[in-house]
Every structure is written in structure tokens, then in C-alpha cells.
Amino acid sequence: MKKWMAQWVLIPMLLISGIVGIPQAAQAETDPLNLTVDAAIMIDAETGKILYSKNAEQPLAIASMTKMMTEYLLFEAIEEGRITWDQQYSVTDYTYQLSQNRALSNVPLRQDGTYSIRELYEAMAIYSANAATVAIAETIAGTEDNFVNLMNEKAAELGLEGYTFVNSSGLNNEDLMGMHPASTGANDENVMPAESVATLAFALLRDYPEVLEVASIPRKTFREGTDDATDMPNWNFMLPGLVYEYEGIDGLKTGTTELAGHSFAGTAKRGDMRLITVVMKAVDSQGVGSYKARFDATRALLDYGFAQFTKQEIVTAGQTIEGAETVAVDKGKEDTVGIALNESISMVIKANEKDLYKPVFTPTEEVLEADVENGQVVGKVKLEKTEGEDLGYILDQTAGVDMVTTSAVERASRVSLVFQGIGAFFAGLWGNVTDFVGGLF
Question: Which of 161, 140, 2 lies closest to 71 in space, CA to CA?
Fold first, then answer.
């Protein structure tokens, strides 16, 4: 009886230990910031190196962070000449009705009005105006349904994972008054993991850095000087002069729906280092979601990033790698040729971890055949961390930096090649004799 009672006393103790002790230890190891968010990630904006990650691979609702994809497709369409900034958009029944819902973020559009793509873009990027976003989608693709197809195609092209786009704005489809894209469900919403949101932000800044020119505007008036003038404060309250101002921040996109909670894809630059952060469904210490909660979480990430990480040159252009100073040359005047790094490799890492990263050379060919040119690519070099956790990159960075020859090696003359062949024959013969004699004794 006592044994039975002891077992039942022990079981709750084990459960408490499992529920309280183990997850806290795991959390301390994987989340040094103890962020109260469903997911978060921080990356270096230049290379995509992951500096922090929490539950970043789980698909979650992204709300108006969706608009970064709409922005990407807009800049692409402008770049390719398919539309222009001055092009005029004529309001449809869909965008008119949606724009009149001031419970959503919107600028009012006149039913018989026309608007330039530039002013619609500013309304989308600054004020997260939803009807203006749909208007851009209709301009690019004819219908929002067609535009959603473009969004999903571009997501695949950019290497995003775990994504589903059902509209251009990030609203839940139930807010679209029955006019949601026909190929999607009435209550569908855009979802994506934090890692893919960061990848999208990375691609947007890499390919169209001019996005920050408008994303960084704290406040602007839509249709200033007209009866339709609408104040547009930026929902990114961390911009200069706003309530949660943060040094260096200049983008990128907030997102809020019931499903997504309070989310934010931010970016800030200090010195020569730019960081991208994503927080999803942030809550305060009481478990309540709020604008402040998402900006507090972003602040914690950025403070951690700028305090703990620096951009450091790990290897220098022209540097050789121990154990890989030369490559063999066949049929050349020289048997080997020197090799070195074609360019330097810098990385954003913790300040005290530089010595933990070592260059690793992967040759494309073990032996080169003459003629060998000076500067000929002979392989790639990438950095590997020798100890401790390395979170890697959001995109495949295994290509590395070129390793190249440091001189040319001409092809040997026919006579030299004959003597090389004779020498190789006798060297091989002598080796076989040596092995035979050694085997006897």
C-alpha cells in the first residue's frame, strides 16, 4: 500500500519537474531574451545570417506584414516598366466600399475618383491603408485574385517556406465584405513563419532599398489641401519623433489582426550594421497583446543585436588557408600553383567569437590542367564555427567566396611532357619494387 502511495506521490513531482524545470532550462538556452512572443527572429540585413531565433519556423498569421510582398511586386512592376508611379487608378466598387470602413486602416477613396500609384503606395507604406493596397494589386494584375497568384509565385521564387497568401493586404478575408479573392476561403488569412517574414524583408531591402524612403516617414497627409485630406501617422511608433522612438530605425511594416495579434517586421541601422527583426503576436507580462508589447520586444532584440554583435573581417583578400596553399597542376611547367582568397569575408558575430570561425576550402578540381590562368577560380571558401551553436542563414549561403590562383602556369613543351611521363613511370616502378621488397622482409 505504501509503495502504491509513493508512486502516486512521485508522479506529480516528476510532472511538475517536467513542466516547470525542463522547459525553463530549455527556454534559458534557446531564448536569452525571454521574449513574450509567439515567434521572433533577428538577422543581419547584409548577409541574412541569423543572430536570434525563437519558434521561427512555425507558420503564423502575418497581418499587414503581408504588404511587404505587395511592395516587392510593385517595385518590380515599376522596374520592368509595366506600370509607372504617375499612372492613374480608377476606383472600383470593391476598393470604394473597403475604403469607407474606417474601423480598418484606410484612406477614403471617392467612388468616381482617380489616384496615382505613388499616393496609393504612400498610403499603404505609411498608414497601412488596405483599400489602397487592393488598388495597387488590381493595377498590377487586373484583379486581386490574379495578384494573389503572383504573390505565391514570388514567395516560391524568393525561397520562402510555409507561406499562404490569400489577399494583398493581410486582413482576414471576412473583413473584405464578401469580395475576397474567389480562389480563397471566406475566413482565410495570410500565414508565414517568422523566418520567411525575415527572408521577405531581407529580399525587399536587398533588391529595392528605396522602400525605406517612404517607410521611414513618421507622418504625412493624404490628399493634402483637399476635402479628402487624411492624416496618416505611421503605425511604426519606433520612428523618430514617435512615442517609442528608437535610434537608427527606419522601417519596415507592422501587422495587427485578431489572429496575428500585434506583430512587427522592423529594421534599424547603426554604423555599418543593419539588422532586421520580426516579432509575432507579442504580449505584455500579463499576456495581453498591445502596440507597446511588439515595440518592447523589438527594442529588446535590437538592443541585444547592437550590443552583442559586431561586423568583423574573419579572413582577408589574398589570404592563404593552412593546408590549402597550392593546387596540383598537370602537364604544366610547374607541378603546383599557389592559391588565395579572391575577396575578404566579413560576418556579423558576437564580439568575442571571431576565433571560433575558421575558413574551409572546397576545391572544384583536385588537379588543374595547364595552361592555368592567373586568377582562375579553383574552389570556394566558407566559414564554419568550430564550437557552439551557429544558427546559419535564412537563405543558402554555402557558395562562399572564390579561391583563385595567384599566378599563371604555362603548359609544358612536348619534350618536357615526355620526360615527365618517363619520370612518372620510373617513380611508379620504383615504388612498386620498394613495396615488393618491403613485403619480403
Answer: 140
